[in-house]
Amino acid sequence: MVEPLRIVDFGRSSPLRSQTLWHAIAYGVSASERATLSFTRPTAPYVCLGYHRGIEEVDRDYCAEKGLPLLRRMVGGGPVYLDGDQLFFQICLPARAVPAARCQALRLLLEPVVTAFRAVGVPAMLDDDLEICAGDRKICGHGAARIEDAVVVCGNLIERFDHERAARVLALADPCQRDQTLTLMRRFVAPTPIDPAAFQAALITAYAAALGLGPRLGGLTGTERTALVSLDENFASDAWLAGPARPAMARTGAASARQVKVRSGVWTLGASYDGARVAASVVRGMIELVRLHDRALNGSKDRAERALTGISLQSVARVLAGFGDPGRRLAVAFATADPARL
Amino acid sequence: MAEAPLVIVAGFPLALDRRYQAETHMWVLQSGPGRVRIGMDPLGIETSGTLAQLSFSPTGTELSAGRPFGELEAAKFVGPLISPVSGTVASVNEEVARDPGLAERDPYGAGWLIEANVSEIADEGSGLLAEPAEITAWFAARVAHYRRSGLIAQ
């Protein structure tokens, strides 16, 4: 007899519950070892932080003004804007059923999503960075975690995407970086306006086939309801929102940087050092657009920006060496970039 | 602490002056009376993917062998760092929390993760590999396994 894949469709949930429901399922799967695919859609927009990310990455004043709650999830990734135009899904399996290696586990659990998109006519693919895209554009966000003895991978069908608000909720000191982030989001993050019911059915079929399980409708167990009560309280607390302890970052006088990943290989950098400021768009290792500021750059600003446009990050220091003290300060700011850790 | 003496096994550096937890690739090194330093070996790091974030339980937290002492994030996947010993967290490496790449660049040295106060680290029953010959054999077998499964390059 085929083992069951429990399907739980929560329908519309409050922002808080759109997170806590599937976290509760993870605890249930950890205890029961019942593979589960769940769905939900938030009733209102909100902002959600990845487990390790700092609350200072979000413009809290803007969120408060717009009534956007701020929540923290247990899975990874950056701060994201979520709303009712996105259908969230979560596949949750006992850890013993998943390869121990993260990249293998992610591939196993993301490939059915690609299958589902293709089944409804979307030419999706899983790229080398394990991102689901169609052509150049990312079409599905994802994150993953091991929660006790369960592994959960979550993602979303983005039916419509509010690029402006997704960029606006981020705390970015330099307006140039915000503009560049929005431009790249429009270019590299695409909604998929398909029938969500058809996608949901295709996803159930794809996961059942990939995992060799039989779909069976279900609901929360007693264990999960108990976990849900606790998670509701925890996720609404200031302590949870603050996140895990993180070390102090920049020393006084040190260079500071803010990186925003738009999709794999596409990101913006806003960095400063000793009064010099940089805002740059980086696409596959090459600088596409850059805005510079330094008190002593004077008439060289345009020339320096042109010299940096189209070059690789590795070449920045060499190019800026030709611009004296301002070039040295700007090179230090650029050196804060760490694309491996976006 | 003195620089770790390393041997190369199947292309990876391996320090033989410490104990290893075979499943989790955590190493344990005595750093003082009743105190050990804990880190992750380069194979464990390589198979995790590029480390994006590390977080640790605060100083004073009780540790149980086989239970988490922190979290590791790579490829947007958050998972537990499993303690190889029981005891209490004595200190955490703030440098590696600030720059997880340190664990990739210097896994046996500056890339250590936490220090723990322990009552003892008995070889018998601890599940830790302690003898250089068994450590080398285990490590070589793991590299071969990961290469066969395509997890690391041939």
Model description:
- With 342 residues, chain A is an alpha+beta fold.
- Chain A folds into two domains: 4-159 and 194-242, BirA Bifunctional Protein, domain 2 (2-Layer Sandwich), CATH 3.30.930.10; 256-341, CO dehydrogenase flavoprotein, C-terminal domain (Enolase-like, domain 1).
- Chain A is built from eleven helices and 16 strands.
- In chain A, the strands form four sheets. Chain A has a six-stranded mixed beta sheet, sandwiched between helices. Chain A has a four-stranded antiparallel beta sheet with strand order 13-14-15-16. A three-stranded mixed beta sheet of chain A has the order 4-3-5.
- In chain A, α2 (60-66) links the parallel β3 (46-49) and β4 (70-72).
- Chain A starts with a strand and ends in an 8-residue tail after the last helix.
- The mean pLDDT of chain A is 95.
- Chain B has 154 residues and is of the alpha+beta class.
- Chain B has one domain: OB fold (Dihydrolipoamide Acetyltransferase, E2P).
- Chain B is built from four helices and twelve strands.
- The relative contact order of chain B is 0.22.
- Classes of the chains: A alpha+beta (342), B alpha+beta (154).
- β10 (142-147) of chain A pairs parallel with β9 (77-82) of chain B.
CATH topology of chain B: OB fold (Dihydrolipoamide Acetyltransferase, E2P)
Q: Give the radius of gyration of chain A.
A: 22 Å
What is the count of distinct domains of chain B? 1
| Biggest β-sheet description of chain A | 6 strands, mixed
Cα-to-Cα separation, first versus last residue of chain B: 33 Å
Can you identify the CATH superfamily of the largest domain in chain A?
Bira Bifunctional Protein, Domain 2
- For the record, the CATH class of the largest domain in chain A is Alpha Beta
* Dominant shape of chain B: globular
Tally of extended strands of chain A? 16
Distance linking N and C termini of chain A: 45 Å
Q: What is the SS-derived class of chain B?
A: alpha+beta
Order of helices and strands of chain B: EEEEEHEEEEEHHEEH
Binned strand content of chain B? 35-45%
In helices, the fraction of residues of chain B equals: 10-25%
